[in-house]
């Protein structure tokens, strides 16, 4: 079994709405058999992983997976359950798993599992693969460093490695609590490393690390870390603090102790988590020993008076008490027979204790500092305490050193609340933990209370469970809103145009818009990233941008399959159409498979949002059925806005009859319909797209006929539906339609004119750029050109082929290319459509062959052109070469016709580009002028 790839899908994906880890495995080395062919493997697995016998699998009952192995199941499915069992042994409660064929004939599969800790899931998949190879007798993959001969030891070492990954990467209780509160409060959150979190989207986004947020100033945080400076500032503010001083030598520490004449506390001036803190030192030897240990943490050591009383932590948010706890030092209770060391070991066996901050309590340590602390109180690790005798292992009252805490929030006197609030405000911290010592927190006594420290980024463990997380997250969003409007646009064709149009409409209404589309990422109209940016990483880029007030995300099939969605919920999802494009890739073999992928975008719409669907497209209508099925399970049904060029569309009529919403084209006018009510928006002739360079079959201009290619109309209606779903007023929608033109939509029916001098007169050679990359798109473009509305047919008299709609006034030359990740039959069909339209066809291959051999795609397209006959066809080495050859041919023909005394035919060159920048550069060399109005 060969592990081809490991990846994480952090957002909603085709397998689960939660994040998953995915392994792509090639099991061809295991032959064509199944688990029945490898009885020794299943026997060894069940012996060293007996928990597999409890797995229910698809049977829904205990032992279901064993039944599957006995009946025969593939190695990928076995890996899924092995990885889940390994995670379970490491303490991870993960039950979701799925195995899906990516390339069945080549026996390549995706094995997917859920996770609590991302890194642990990847380790489990990696080591599970190595384990199965070991059992099968295959060579152990290099990704595993384990090399043990005994199965049980081998498995235990795998589990140990997973546990180490969990310990290293899993967020602690404070961070986990914040994450859970975000989910409960519908606040989008993304976890980075080291407890760093991004809460909210766009301009409403906020940074947090554990309990600290971007609202806490760097200066305030540094002040809180310096215990002496904090003590001085609080004393200047009239707040009670212990008497103390900073020393840098043993001599200075002894001198201050002598001067005090009573027990002291020693701790590092800069430190955290209770390291190097020693309380109640009563003689010079103890002071010197404590100084040395504290100086190992920080060379500046604080010596201060010891204050009798109980230790409390008051957690403040914006100067107001959010929670309070009484802290207890780490201690053990004697049983009369166990040593101190044995009692500590037994106490650390509590599953609630972890080695760090990953659990609610931390294990007690028995290092040099703890041994010294015990000695100061007359104890040693070998001494046996009497039954019931309490032994303080570490005098510092801190959870990080093994201490405990008890909630006392409701007992805190108002005077102490004010005092702690003043301390936090003095340092300029929004969230802080104030450590205080006093006899009783219920009784206010200014003579017996001292503020020991103010802690930035306070741990929340001692205050859990409580509503603290909600208050903490809520303080970051005082207006109660962590989200910005999000529109997701998907479909086989038209999604870039729709996304750009919706973004333009939002920008015209005054929003700073973030846009992801097939040619880059834009913020406020400025391109910040180039290239195809229709995947989840680009979506996250926009949603993390601090200036973005609304996001429009073109969401392509490939990005969904490779990485899932880059957001949790959208307010509006638009599905333009779904055709059989990209089939045969990533395990998507049929249109039904593709529909399930596209439907994910529609499923992830908030309860108050809308799904905008093309009622004229069967695939888009089926997406509605997918959403209804999912939403029925969730007892929620997202409203749908249909759009259609046909006001008599039966789906629209049925939808309106039950009070639904629709966007219609009625007598060449765009209308908003709901139930029996209709609201006129504007006529097609009033739109900027309606004034675009549309060439009709009869040579008339758009102004004369007020017609437009169908796909352009559909794109406009989809954008209107999205704007309506966002709650934009009619006036804003009208402005969007009137101002969105070709200049806002580069590479989509982008028209240029090149002057050709014929007999001293200038004559235009027209060039059209379009990203037609599949048969449906090319067919729509050729219909718009006017030459394929009726196709090619034999002339009744001569039997020759003529192009209807072109006549003698317009001639067409095509430069075509198609991505290699399409089925052979689709590529051939693409060439056939081109052959039906163009007199000459120049075929170029994309720079990115997408797994094809050089020349393979070009020859398939040539085969399609030849199947029609009558077109001149030539394969070119590059996109620019093809365009230059087409321009030269058109230029030469126009000159020849002029020299023959003929006015000459009008020539138009269409290029279906891959790299728009290269094409633009080529046209600049011909001094091409961009056409914003209709062609003359």
Low-confidence stretches: 138-149, 632-636, 694-707, 787-809
**Helicity, as a percent range:** 25-40%
Number of beta-strand segments: 41
Mean pLDDT: 88
Which shape, going by the Cα principal axes?
Answer: elongated
**Biggest β-sheet strands, sense, barrel:** 11 strands, mixed
How much of the sequence is in beta strands? 15-25%
Describe the structure concisely.
Helix content is 35%, strand content 24%. With 936 residues, the protein is of the alpha/beta class.
Give your account of this protein's structure.
Mean pLDDT is 88; it is low at 138-149, 632-636, 694-707 and 787-809. Helices cover 35% and strands 24% of the residues. The strands form nine sheets. The protein has an eleven-stranded mixed beta sheet, with helices on both faces. The chain has a seven-stranded mixed beta sheet with strand order 39-38-37-40-34-33-41, sandwiched between helices. It contains 28 helices and 41 strands. Helix 10 packs antiparallel against helix 12 and helix 15 (495-508) packs across helix 23 (730-739). The protein starts with a strand and ends in a 6-residue tail after the last strand. The protein is of the alpha/beta class and 936 residues long. The relative contact order is 0.06.
């Amino acid at each position: 079994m060969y592990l081809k790839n490991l990846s994480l899908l952090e957002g909603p994906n085709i397998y689960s709405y939660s994040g998953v880890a995915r392994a792509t495995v090639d099991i061809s080395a295991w032959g064509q058999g199944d688990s029945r062919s490898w009885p020794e493997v299943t026997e060894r697995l069940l012996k060293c992983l007996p928990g597999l016998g409890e797995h229910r699998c698809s049977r829904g009952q205990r032992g279901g997976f064993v039944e599957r192995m006995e009946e025969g199941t593939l190695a990928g499915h076995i890996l899924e359950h092995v990885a889940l069992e390994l995670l379970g042994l490491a303490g991870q409660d993960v039950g979701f798993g799925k195995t899906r064929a990516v390339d069945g004939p080549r026996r390549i599969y995706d094995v997917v599992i859920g996770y609590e800790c991302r890194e642990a899931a990847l380790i489990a998949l990696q080591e599970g693969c190595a384990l199965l190879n070991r059992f099968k007798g295959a060579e152990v993959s290099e990704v595993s460093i384990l090399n043990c001969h005994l199965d049980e030891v081998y498995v235990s070492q795998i589990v140990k490695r997973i546990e180490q990954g969990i310990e290293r990467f899993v967020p602690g209780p404070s961070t986990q609590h914040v994450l859970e509160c975000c989910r409960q409060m519908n606040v989008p959150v993304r976890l980075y490393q080291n407890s760093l979190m991004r809460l909210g989207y766009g301009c409403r986004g906020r940074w947090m690390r554990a309990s600290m947020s971007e609202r806490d100033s760097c200066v305030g945080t540094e002040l809180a870390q310096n215990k002496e400076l904090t003590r001085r500032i609080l004393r200047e503010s009239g707040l009670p603090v212990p008497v103390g001083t900073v020393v840098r030598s043993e001599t200075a520490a002894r001198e201050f102790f002598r001067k005090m004449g009573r027990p002291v506390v020693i701790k590092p001036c800069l430190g955290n988590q209770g390291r190097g803190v020693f309380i109640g030192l009563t003689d010079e030897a103890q002071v010197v020993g404590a100084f040395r240990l504290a100086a190992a943490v920080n060379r500046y050591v604080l010596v201060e008076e010891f204050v009798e009383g109980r230790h409390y932590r008051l957690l403040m948010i914006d100067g107001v008490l959010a929670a309070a706890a009484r802290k207890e030092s780490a201690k053990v209770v004697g049983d009369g027979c166990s040593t101190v060391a044995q009692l500590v070991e037994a106490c650390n066996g509590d599953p609630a204790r972890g080695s760090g901050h990953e659990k609610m309590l931390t294990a007690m340590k028995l290092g040099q500092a703890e041994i010294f602390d015990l000695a100061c109180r007359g104890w040693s690790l070998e001494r046996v305490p009497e039954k019931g005798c309490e032994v303080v292992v570490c005098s510092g009252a801190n959870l990080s050193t093994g201490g405990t805490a008890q909630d006392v929030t409701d007992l805190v006197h108002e005077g102490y609340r004010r005092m702690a609030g003043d301390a936090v405000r003095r340092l300029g911290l929004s969230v802080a933990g104030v450590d205080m010592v006093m006899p009783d927190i219920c009784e206010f006594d200014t003579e017996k209370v001292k503020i020991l420290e103010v802690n930035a980024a306070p741990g929340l463990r001692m205050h859990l469970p409580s509503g603290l997380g909600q208050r903490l997250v809520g303080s970051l969003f005082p207006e109660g809103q962590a989200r910005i409007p999000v529109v997701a646009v998907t479909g086989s064709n038209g999604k870039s145009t729709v996304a750009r149009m919706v973004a333009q409409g939002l920008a015209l209404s005054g929003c700073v818009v973030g846009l992801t589309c097939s040619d880059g990422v834009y913020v406020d109209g400025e391109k910040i990233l180039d290239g195809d940016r229709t995947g989840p990483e680009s979506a996250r880029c926009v949603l993390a941008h601090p200036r973005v007030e609304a996001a429009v995300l073109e969401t392509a099939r490939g990005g969904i399959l490779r990485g899932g969605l880059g957001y949790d919920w959208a307010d509006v999802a638009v599905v333009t159409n779904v055709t059989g494009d990209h089939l045969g890739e990533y395990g998507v073999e049929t249109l039904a498979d593709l529909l399930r992928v596209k439907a994910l975008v529609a499923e992830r719409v908030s309860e108050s949002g809308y799904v905008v669907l093309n009622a004229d497209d069967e695939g888009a209508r089926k997406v509605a059925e997918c959403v209804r099925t999912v939403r029925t399970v969730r007892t929620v049904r997202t409203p749908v806005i249909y759009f259609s060029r046909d006001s008599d569309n039966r789906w629209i009529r049925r939808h309106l009859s039950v009070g639904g919403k629709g966007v219609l084209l009625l007598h060449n006018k765009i209308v908003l319909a709901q139930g029996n009510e209709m609201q006129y928006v504007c006529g097609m002739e009033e739109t900027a797209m309606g004034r675009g360079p549309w060439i009709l079959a009869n040579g008339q201009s758009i102004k004369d006929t007020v017609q437009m290619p169908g796909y352009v109309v559909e794109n406009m209606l989809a954008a209107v539906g999205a704007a309506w779903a966002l709650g934009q007023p009619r006036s804003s929608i009208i402005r969007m339609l009137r101002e969105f033109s070709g200049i806002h939509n580069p590479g989509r029916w982008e028209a240029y004119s090149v002057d050709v001098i014929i007999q001293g007169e200038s004559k235009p050679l027209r060039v059209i750029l379009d990203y037609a990359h599949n048969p449906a798109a090319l067919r729509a473009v050729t219909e718009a050109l006017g030459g394929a509305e009726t196709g090619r047919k034999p002339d009744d008299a001569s039997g020759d082929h003529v192009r209807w709609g072109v006549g003698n006034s317009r001639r067409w030359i095509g430069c075509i290319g198609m991505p290699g990740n399409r089925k052979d039959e689709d590529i051939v069909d693409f060439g056939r459509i081109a052959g039906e339209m163009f007199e000459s066809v120049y075929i170029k291959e994309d720079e990115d062959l997408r797994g094809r051999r050089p020349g393979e795609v070009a020859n398939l397209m040539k085969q399609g052109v030849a199947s029609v006959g009558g077109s001149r066809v030539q394969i070119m080495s590059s996109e620019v070469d093809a365009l230059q050859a087409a321009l030269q041919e058109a230029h030469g023909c126009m000159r020849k016709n002029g020299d023959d005394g003929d006015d000459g035919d009008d020539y138009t060159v269409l290029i279906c580009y891959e790299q728009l920048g290269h094409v633009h550069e080529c046209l600049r060399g011909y001094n091409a002028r961009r056409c914003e109005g209709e062609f003359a």
